[in-house]
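=== Structure Prediction Worksheet ===
Name of assembly: unnamed complex
Input type: mixed (protein and possibly other molecules)
Chain count: three
Listed entries:
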Amino acid sequence: MTLLSVKDVVASYGDITVLKGISINVNPGEVVSVIGANGAGKSTLLKVIAGLIPATKGSIIFKGEDITQTSPFERVSAGITLVPEGRKIFNSLTVLENLEMGAFNPRARRKKNVLLSQVFELFPELEKMKNRNASTLSGGEGQMLNIARGLMSDPELILFDEVSLGLAPAIVKRIYEAIKAINSKGISVILVEQNIMQSLNICNRFYLLTSGAIRLCGRPSEYGFEEIKKAYFGGVSGA
Amino acid sequence: MEKNILIAIFILFALLSLLSDPFWSAFFSLVFIYIACSEMWSFMISKVNLLSLGQQAFIGLGGYTLAVSSVYYDLPIPFGILMSACVAGIFTILELPPLLRLRGIYFAVGSWLFSEIIHLIFINWEFVHAGRGMAVPKAYGMSPTITYFMALCVAIISVSVIYFLSKSKTGLALRSIGENEMTALSIGINSFKYRGFCFFIASLITGLAGGVYYTMRPYVIPWEAFGIQWTIGFAFASIIGGSGTLLGPVIGSIIHVSLIHALAGFTIIAPLIDVIVVIIVLFVFPKGIWGTIAEKMRFKLT
Amino acid sequence: MPDPLVLLSSILIEGIILGGFYSLVGLGFSQIFGIMRVMNLAHGDFIILASYLFALFAQVLTNPFLAFIVVAPLMFMIGYLYQNVLNKMIYKDSSAILLITICFGVALENILLLIFTPNPRNLCPSYLLGGIDLLGVSVRKSLLVAFSGSIATFVLLFLFFKRTYIGKAIIAASDDRLTAMLMGINPPKIYRYGMGICMVIAAVTGLMVAINYLFDPSAGTSYLMIAFGTLVIGGIGSLLGTFLGGFVLGISQTLTANLIGTSYQLVGGYIIILIFMLLRPQGLFGRKE
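=== Predicted Assembly ===
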């Protein structure tokens, strides 16, 4: 059964329509990449799936249930977690408290200690810093906290929004290893990235977005690099 | 289009004076005073992002100036009213340099603080009879029709000032400050000066209105003259009618004064009704009654 | 001419004790602003509402302190319901919500006026009348109770935020509302609990007001000004800031009272607030916005 099914979703920022009827699917255990240039609507798509932005048309079905009208915190309880772009950690709290916040929803709260040890296994650096105030973390450490916090909500589907943006290559490598490890535990992933190579290497399937519509989709092995590049930059396509 | 509606309404108001029923005369005089002041309040918040919670200072100053000029200097009423505007203006000039440095909610409460400081001073100052309040003897015999026209004049002046200001070069500067202050500053517009100018004009008109009000009700009591209820009323009228429009505060003022009269025996629940009305109106008309209508019908507003 | 050293110590000690009380006045107000970015301009009036509730229940229970058991939960519920209304407007016009809080304040004043008449009241029990000698300065016993009550409340609140899950959730939601939603935190519910807690703080404040001063329905405004002052001086989102802000206000007030005259003492406080707004708008310990 499909885990997530997004059908013909339309979304706007004010008067500007950003998503013009998008349909994507995610199967259980998959890593799906969403790539595209700046402004194509990738971030918006994730925010719509997470519930931060409403879909004016279309539907979102998760595990067989229509969640289009539900609020973000209800979706977290259902099993969808968004790891947002940028440094969105809670600066007034410590690392440990940030992680505890991640497990706020009732389902995760019950398994909090189990999740915490899993997260520390994945990111031992965070365990060492657990009592430090989050505002003192470096860029890479903050991003690891961001991801770890997302894991604390015990998701079935995790959405990564530009998770490697602005980070040093060594840290990016570390983060991608972590994503692979997360996926190997059975958690499905949607990965939004501007870095095409990295994200195509890690995914099972991908979608390419231009100007709010899907240009290309399928397995990376089905397409040559030239073809993807052309579609990325808006070349002529039959889609 | 809006301009024409306004002109028609004001002509109607002028003609209404012929009715000479004392109740309606007083009713509409109060409406005009609210129109004058809420237009100014709306002007400040919509054009230059100044949320003022201190307009009552000018009403109070206006009223007291009138009283003082009448009692101590034996000046005729019209003169006293003009002095009201002057005193309000002088006070504003003194208050502005520190006040203008504040932003947003700090400006709002700052303006309220200044008003409260004046309030406290007047309560303790023997010259203005402290907490006992002052009478305006010259206003006792005044005919309601004269008050009616004075109030109408202030309202017309208020609306005209806003109208002509919007059309002028100054108005253009104001619009750009309102849109994006950073950008305005970077093209050389001294937003400081312009925001101060708006506040100053607003204070003059509100002071004038205060003077006129206290010809209608010729006894100035500090907690009434400097009460926050004035600004609440102006804000209410602007928000309900549609701040940022010319016709909005007119509609809002009529509604507000009607509510005041309708709830006169029920002063206790009046503010609660106010809250309920604001919530309901804003749900149905998110930009105020006229604001939403005008937007739907795509009227061009000033 | 009194000995200047005695005068100074008198001003300082009175100012500090008074200041401790003022910190409490500001606590409920600044916490709500820190959590939701909304200034509850009716806060002063809610404090006075609490004072009247104490007056009511103290008649039945004889002891105003005992009445806290009833008044505190009552105020919590009032805050919860109040926030229900505010939540509806919170995402719309920001000046509209200020208007609504002002209207609630005026409505409260008028309701209290109707029920209790404008006669000022006081609830000081006989064993708290009179003063204690503190380092040579006579301080009212009731004010010392207010001072201790204030410190206790601050400590309890600090522990609440540091130790409880919901306390930390409130901090998270006030740091970043959208991200908090991604954690499964429901901001409107958080705001309701936050307002409930602040109303309990208002209840403690109301008790202290009732014991120390003559209160009448219109007394709310001056307490609102003091609350605003602690927010400005202390900075947004800082418990320590609010705490110290109260002391700054208390001392400036006793200073003005002693040097200029008691009828102008509030003005001294207001001027200090204005100075801070101008020269240090982020307050002593404000969060960067």
